[in-house]
Amino acid sequence: MRKLFISIAAGCALSASAAQPNDSVSGSAYRLFAPLTFYHNVSAGMLALSNESSDVDEAVDQALMNVYLNRPDLVEATETQLEESGSLRQDIDQPIEQKVELVEHVAPQPDEPEIAPAEVVVTKPKFWTRKGDGFLQFMQNYVSSNWYKGGESTYSLLGSLTLEANYDNKGKWKWDNKLEAKLGFLTARSDSLHKWKANEDLLRLTSKVGLQATKRWYYTLQLLAWTQFARGLKSNDHRTYSDFFSPFNLNVGLGMDYKVEAFDKKLTGTVNLSPIALNYRYVGRTLFPNQNTANPTDFSWFPSRHGIDADKHYLLDPGSQLTADLQWKLSETVTWKSRLWGFTSYHRAEVEWENTFQLKVSKYITANIFLYPRFDDGNVYDDDLGYFQFKEYTSIGLSYSF
């Protein structure tokens, strides 16, 4: 009942306000919607001889007076009680006046061009990526002359450099190039003929041009070329077993290349299958035996110099080849690099499997374990290993990648 009465009173006040649109709006209308309170100025205004209140204030006072006279039981508090509690605001009696500034003319706005000039920067695509790494490592082994198990003191120094320049147009074509150079020397007291001998010697170029067939397969033309830097010697042996461009190998293969990405890209690399391949081998040295031998033209000690007859300098064989170049990051500090190469002319076969386990000790120090099994039935047959060969070394030293 109270809510209905207050709503009727509010409607009367608002109607009075709408009837005089030019009157200022007073903040006293809130008393119709607040908890019902007995205000002193309501009765004072009704009994005054002259009243300067606005029409809205007068309508509100009349509505409140009707409630005071007809339903005094609805009054919950008096103005005095509100003032004592500090909950009565005095600023609401001030009329709210809107300050509006009228101008005859609005300042003209500058015309903006429909198309704003913009600077366009065109970045040239980066198709080439270049990287490299290298290390210089040292090994030393000392054994005293009276060591109970025997043995020999040795010193060795090994350097390696790998450079890569790869092209990828982000479309169909790619061109991968890798240059590898390794050279290591060894000295041993037991060798009375040579102060230093090369124990690791390699200069190799791998180049592949590929046309994409599917997401991971490419039609590929691959070129492999490799030789060595220094003479190949054996302890207390005056003969030279190999030399720069003796032999020199050049392999060209046509086939397919597969891009490997596995184990969240921890295992990456390529596998190349070339069913059509051509192997060219060249030996530049005229004679491998020492001229001081009784018969300098006797090559029986070294049959078919790297598969080449004694009266020739080159060998040309068609066949097929397989090349796999992979890198597996086993952990944050251990990386396994593996290269498998095989060639067969269907009357001879060569297989090489290079494995390097690299342990990263710090940012610039690494330790390497190198395992290198090899099969070559064009070489001299060994009574113990047959046509199999094996090389291994362990080293530690400085390394740098860029």
Written description of the protein model:
A hairpin with a 4-residue loop joins strand 8 (248-262) and strand 9. The protein starts with a helix and ends with a strand. Strands 3-4-5-6-7-8-9-10-11-12-13-14 form a 12-stranded antiparallel barrel. Strands 1-2 form a two-stranded parallel sheet. Helix 1 (2-19) packs antiparallel against helix 3 and helix 2 crosses helix 3 (55-70). The protein has 402 residues and is mainly beta. The protein is built from 4 helices and 14 strands.
Core attributes:
single chain; 402 residues; mainly beta; twelve-stranded antiparallel beta barrel; two-stranded parallel sheet; 4 helices; 12% helix; elongated
Please summarize what this structure is.
This protein is mainly β and 402 residues long. Helix content is 12%, strand content 43%.
Give the mean pLDDT: 82
- Neighbour order of strands in the largest sheet: 3-4-5-6-7-8-9-10-11-12-13-14
Overall, the morphology is elongated
Strand content: 35-45%
Helix content: 10-25%
Helix run count: 4
Spans of at least 5 consecutive residues whose pLDDT stays below 50 are: 1-25, 289-294, 296-304
Q: Ends: how far apart?
A: 89 Å
Number of strands: 14
Topology readout:
Elements: H1 2-19, E1 37-38, H2 40-47, H3 55-70, E2 77-78, H4 79-85, E3 128-141, E4 154-168, E5 173-188, E6 197-212, E7 217-227, E8 248-262, E9 267-282, E10 314-329, E11 334-344, E12 349-360, E13 365-376, E14 388-401
Parallel strand pairs: 1-2
Antiparallel strand pairs: 3-4, 3-14, 4-5, 5-6, 6-7, 7-8, 8-9, 9-10, 10-11, 11-12, 12-13, 13-14
